[in-house]
Amino acid sequence: MQDSQSAEILYQQLAQSIAAPIRAGTLMRGERIPSVRELARSREVSIGTVLQAYRMLEDAHLIEARPRSGYFVASRPLNLPEPETSNPPADSMAVDVSSLAARVMHLAHDPGYISFGAACPSADLFSEERVRRAVSRAVQRHRATLCSYTTGYGDESLRRAIARHALRMGCQLDPQDIIVTNSCLESITLCLRAVTKPGDIVALESPTLFAFLEILENLHLRALEIPTHPRTGFSLDALQLAFDTQPVKAVLCVPTLSNPIGSSIPLADRQRLALMVAQRGIPLVEDVLYNDLAEQEDQRRAVRAFDSSGHVMMCGSFSKTVAPGLRLGWVEAGRWGAKLVRLKESTSGSQTAFLERALADLLTQLGIEAGYRQLRATVATRVDEARGLIARHFPAGTRLTDPQGGFILWVELPPAIDSLELFKVCLAENIVIAPGKMFSATGYFGHCIRLGLGGRWDDAHRQALRRVGELANSMMTLPAMPPGTDRVQALVK
Amino acid sequence: MQDSQSAEILYQQLAQSIAAPIRAGTLMRGERIPSVRELARSREVSIGTVLQAYRMLEDAHLIEARPRSGYFVASRPLNLPEPETSNPPADSMAVDVSSLAARVMHLAHDPGYISFGAACPSADLFSEERVRRAVSRAVQRHRATLCSYTTGYGDESLRRAIARHALRMGCQLDPQDIIVTNSCLESITLCLRAVTKPGDIVALESPTLFAFLEILENLHLRALEIPTHPRTGFSLDALQLAFDTQPVKAVLCVPTLSNPIGSSIPLADRQRLALMVAQRGIPLVEDVLYNDLAEQEDQRRAVRAFDSSGHVMMCGSFSKTVAPGLRLGWVEAGRWGAKLVRLKESTSGSQTAFLERALADLLTQLGIEAGYRQLRATVATRVDEARGLIARHFPAGTRLTDPQGGFILWVELPPAIDSLELFKVCLAENIVIAPGKMFSATGYFGHCIRLGLGGRWDDAHRQALRRVGELANSMMTLPAMPPGTDRVQALVK
Known about the structure:
The structure is a homodimer of 493-residue chains. With 493 residues, the first copy, chain A, is an alpha/beta fold. Among the domains of chain A are: 2-73, Orthogonal Bundle (Arc Repressor Mutant, subunit A); 128-364, Type I PLP-dependent aspartate aminotransferase-like (Major domain) (Aspartate Aminotransferase, domain 2), CATH 3.40.640. Chain A is built from 16 helices and 16 strands. The first copy, chain A, has helices spanning 2-24, 36-43, 47-59, 98-108, 128-141, 156-167, 184-195, 210-218, 236-245, 267-280, 337-347, 353-364, 368-393, 419-428, 459-475, 487-492; strands at residues 63-66, 70-73, 114-115, 178-181, 201-206, 222-229, 233-234, 248-253, 284-287, 312-317, 329-332, 399-400, 408-412, 431-432, 434-435, 448-452. The interface between A and B is large, with 63 and 63 residues.
């Protein structure tokens, strides 16, 4: 078991070392790459390992084998079309997704299933030893905090570390303005509580994270979903129209790698968005959870970087990028800072002080940048591979996102497929996917699914993903049959 | 410094060893206790230590010196009257206490002040080493959780430990029904969110914890304050009347050692309360934070123990009794359990798993019961001493609570004194008290203060408490002066 795991790590690392220069354009399309024997010799690995790595790269449509000529960088990239810009209704609506989301997420985290349901990175993507050392050090050095009642906005060193971290996103934050929370989700909940009251309208992406919809549902807020493009994010023109025609009280937005659609707002539009909300005095709750997973540096830049009026409330955490098991988030709430502090204190109090110290330690260690790079490369290879499998095994007419980072894919199946039904037949085969309806208050996206690829990724998962495609295919409406043909039999065949 | 601290611990322990049998009735009123020399010899401590201890017991009105006869158990206990049952208006009202409370609490936790403002126990009341060992062990043993995304309701072992803990309160909880939170405050917030909507009326004690009022304020709920007796808690007859005449949607109650008034509801009334809410189908949010600090076992029994209908939602944490620095709370929400789970998950997610293990470890250690006993004894001595100082140094007409446990006193000053003014003049002398208006939505209690005695307790604090009394005295309206007398000069004198 240990051996097969390390073999897997070996060929995955090998595949990544070839995928990276292809993606970066250093290796050009059509260029020849080393033969299996050459690579095995130069890297001092077995032929089998190279074969595995090449198969993985083939699956990801990054390389292709030409008979009797060897391996080449794929001349034509994966050519599945993207979903089109979403088209939600122009009216805001009350939200009711929590019961479906609850059932799906419960299964998504059940280790008894092969799960693409959750959007959480698995432990093997991180250095457990590094986190353990940081936590143990913090317990030793800050033992006096163990029995001291913690109050206030968060540990000073962590707030400084977060301010430093925000520099990478182009933001100069005052550590004194940063509030430490239990999670990014708590940050967002507090922001919305600070700037809305029940019945208010909140504009957000469409599709959007079901957890956001649950927050709106629980705070009795109305969701106004804005048409969203899978690459460039929600339409600022549509948002402007919403501002002009409806009493929008807040905008909730994931400008970088929006979950589930994977969009990242272009740099110029980030600036425009900051101006738009400032001009209207409408608070923008910006979730920067995934910014460190963006492949392009431009896309790590926060909208907050362009805001000088205090209308952007910035929410983040490190559970997807540094240490998933340390439950800590943060928020810098601009002009609503004082209100946030009181809300946080009266809602759940402070966080555990030595944990904050441990996270501060992790964030200021030298290797942090390399860690992000490594994480980005690992999940990129997985996502490439999964995209290849989807292209081959999913029904004709499938559309698929091509996110510039992260580990989440959004699949638009042919309209004939009810993804809630697909969810059920997958479940019967021990596979969990997230049906599209979870990600909107509109009832739309009934033929879409979200696939989270941050969890374990091995042959069982590859097989399961193929199987999802086969099951989807079997659900396609068949062409009209000659009279007398048994439709059901045709389906079962 | 180290020496004077250990000397202080020595005489405090000595004082406690005498105070305990007096309070328990083992040493009877008027009975002679050992002379200073006898005790110094038998306990092998210095004469000075015994003198300090006896002075402390005298201040606490537990012993008295009779000239040329020695020391005796005080024949007459401290005889300051209790405050009367509070008499809030019969209508519910919107809440607006958070700005005052924010200012006071900010100062109360500032180490630059001598603070009686907070209701937090100080670190020296707990075994830091014991907590450190439990946390370090948990990090080592459960290191796999450090990089695993945590979901769900809380660690199994902690939920079992909490269920076992609840047995001490007479409650048989199913561990599966217990949800781990960030704090008792978060538990209460989630309960109220689960059972109310904005504009709803919540009945609660009067005075009540300002943090409760802030929760109501932030959730746009209306507070209906119920007349509350400083020993027996809120009036069930008044509560019944409220049920009969107003659309009460929830009751929020601290049956044991209510903060700030220190009341504990008698056992029979707990049973009646459980029946009342079950009959009306009104949820009761029961805060059991202080139950382990109650001196009488009867008063540790929760209202939940008498509830078989699932209408009592039980909220607790261990930040006042086991480890103030570990930010973890819990809730068992009866029939609203499923709703609580979803609210918790979508509001702030799960807690840090290894911390939960550490707390589970602490809760199941053998010494836990002795720890509670020791904590109760230590704070009881402080409270006794503080009551003695108040009796001697505060204005005539002062009323004072006599809580059966805990470390919080509620002082009703003569009506002429504006406790907000007193707060200000105390602050000018570097002393923080909590003015009474923080503890009610009614605007009442303007002549009351809360004193928290869980923090440090040394000569500077004794001196500061005396000084609060002197300042209060100086604020008393003077009797009518002969014409021509300068009133201000008289006050300043």
